[in-house]
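Researcher: I'd like a candidate sequence for this fold, 272 residues long. If you have to choose between options at a position, lean toward the conservative one.
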């Protein structure tokens, strides 16, 4: 039989991949009366694994991890190969390795090309959103950040998180006027806030990134004020509530999609 002269097509190269094992418990944030923290063993290693496109990327990642956790705790299992990475991947990955990750234990940060997934345990919902927001900001709009973090350890914060249940308190477009759907959710939050008692709670407004930042910051604050006024009008003590507006600065989803922008237009309740 004559051998075929046809060449066998080569497989496309794999995408760059970095996976950090956070099950080797990371350092928790300082304990305080305001924020519950995760109790962890700071002696366990942080494992870095995956395939990156060059030695410079590997060195940058390991250097950043050693800054965060100490050289003795970082275990290097990163390989270098001819993989495809998005533009400026090294810079984006290093930027995502920020101090907010130190609030996470028992999980993993996986950066697969421009897809990012964070899992593990944090102290409460406020920390969960903070970690995800920092990742999304560092990654930029071309990356999709998936949040699989679990919050816990603060019973009063958990009560508010469960009452809100990841729902979006809606307003009329471009205004601080609540919709009927928004007020229906707030009626449930009234009950939860009354159960929280005299604990201080901050009402925080967030927006997407459409339009000028200054206008969005102002709108997010106006919406937080509108929520506070509604809650006060329905029996929540005014002295227990404060407001803050971050505008587009703390996204939890991709602002390049309609669904992502809708998730970023939200009200957050943080127990202080």
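Model: Candidate sequence:
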């Amino acid at each position: 039989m004559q051998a075929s002269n046809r060449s066998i097509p080569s497989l496309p190269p794999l995408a760059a991949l970095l996976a950090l094992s956070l099950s080797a418990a990371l350092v928790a944030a300082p304990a305080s009366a305001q924020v519950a923290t995760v109790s962890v063993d700071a002696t366990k290693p942080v494992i870095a694994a995956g395939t990156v496109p060059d030695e410079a990327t590997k060195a940058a990642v390991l250097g950043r991890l050693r800054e965060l956790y100490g050289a003795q705790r970082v275990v290097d299992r990163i390989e270098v190969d001819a993989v495809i990475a998005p533009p400026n991947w090294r810079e984006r990955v290093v930027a995502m390795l920020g101090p907010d990750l130190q609030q996470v234990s028992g999980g993993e940060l996986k950066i697969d090309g421009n897809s990012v997934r964070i899992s593990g345990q944090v102290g409460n919902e406020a920390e969960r959103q903070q970690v995800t927001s920092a990742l999304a900001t560092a990654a930029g709009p071309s990356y999709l950040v998936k949040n699989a973090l679990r919050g816990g350890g603060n019973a009063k914060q958990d009560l508010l998180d469960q009452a809100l249940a990841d729902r979006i308190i809606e307003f009329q477009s471009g205004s601080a006027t609540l919709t009927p759907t928004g007020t229906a959710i707030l009626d449930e939050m009234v009950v939860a806030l009354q159960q929280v008692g005299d604990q201080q709670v901050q009402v925080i407004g967030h927006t997407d990134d459409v339009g000028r930042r200054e206008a969005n910051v102002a709108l997010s604050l106006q919406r937080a004020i509108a929520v506070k006024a509604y809650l006060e009008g329905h029996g929540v003590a005014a002295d227990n509530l404060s407001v803050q507006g971050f505008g587009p600065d703390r996204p939890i989803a991709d602002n390049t999609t309609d669904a992502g922008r809708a998730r970023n237009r939200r009200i957050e309740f943080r127990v202080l």
